[in-house]
Amino acid sequence: MPEQETPNTETEQTVETPPEGEAPKGDETEQKPAEESVPAEVLRKKLTDANAEAANYRTKLRETEAKLSSAKTVEEFEAATAVLKEQVEALERQILLNEVAAKYELPAALAKRLVGATPEELEADAKALSQFAVAPAPESLTGGLNPGDDDEDFDPVKAVADFRRNRY
Fold it and tell me: Is there a contact between 133 and 106 (Cβ–Cβ < 8 Å)?
């Protein structure tokens, strides 16, 4: 006869149901901040690039699998694994370069020029290069307000009344 487990009351969490008419408190009612909208063309290009990169990795995987399956001697197997290890090291280096470049907001052209063997050396080089990187020009210098955007006239009395009504 199996033993029955007794619930441990110290680690259990109780779930309280709110009274009728009230919304439950917690993650369901929290509002997420509005995300910045990204143009569809940019998203399509990123998706296309990611799909092309994934296809490239799939073909490399198939080539490596074919090499490993056709290896009949220990030397052939070691040669195939050596090639695979070189590819892994190159990809790890590229990931490290991308992370450091993103941390210091370097453009892709300067990210390729980072020099160093350790992450600390790469960060020091990225810090030095970031002084020469030119910040991209903003799309608009209007500060978000364009005089021609509003079709209706501004009524200060109405604005104050709306403010007073909505401040509580």
Answer: yes
CA dist 27 and 33 (Å) reads 13
**Sequence-distant contacts of 107-113: CB under 8 A, at least 24 apart:** 107/133
Structure tokens that stand for 14 in this block:
């109780």
What are the pLDDT digits (tens) for 109-139? 888 888 888 889 999 999 988 888 777 777 7
Give the predicted TM-score (pTM) of the model: 0.45
φ, ψ for residue 103, nearest 5 deg: -65, -40
* Residue 158 backbone zone (phi > 0: left; psi -120 to 50: alpha; other: beta): alpha
Burial class (CB in 10 A: 0-12, 13-18, 19+), 144: exposed
pLDDT tens column, 82-114:
888 998 899 899 889 989 988 888 888 888 888
The gap from C-alpha 92 to its chain's centroid, in whole angstroms, comes to: 18
Q: At what angle do helices 74-103 and 119-130 cross, to 10 degrees?
A: 40
In whole angstroms, give the CA distance from residue 61 to residue 73.
21
